[in-house]
Specification:
98 residues; mainly alpha; 2 domains; elongated
């Protein structure tokens, strides 16, 4: 392979890298914007999960007092906790020096 072919191959490779990274950065930027808009709701969810109402709802679910067709992922013992932990890890990754 001659120098010109290597040059073209190099440029094509880095053009491909540039395109993938650029697309990923755009998706991440949109996701961060969406997440920022959800911050007030996240705060509400965290307050609910750590408060008396969640405990009451959980106990009522365990006792069979809620309709069986009710979606209840928020009442799983680990569901909200795992989500909040994941969000903490994401925040640490975005702000590693805080």
């Amino acid at each position: 392979m001659n120098a010109k072919d290597k040059q073209i191959e190099r440029i094509e490779y880095f053009e491909s890298v540039f395109g993938r990274v650029s697309a990923a950065a755009g998706r991440l930027s949109l996701a961060l914007e969406e997440f920022e808009k959800l911050e007030p709701e996240l705060n509400e969810l965290e307050a609910y999960y750590s408060g008396k109402l969640w405990k009451k709802d959980f106990a009522d679910d365990e006792a069979g007092r809620l309709p069986p067709e009710l979606k209840r992922g928020v009442l799983s013992e680990d569901g909200v906790y795992n989500l909040l932990s994941e969000i903490d890890e994401i925040r640490k990754a975005l702000n590693p020096h805080t």
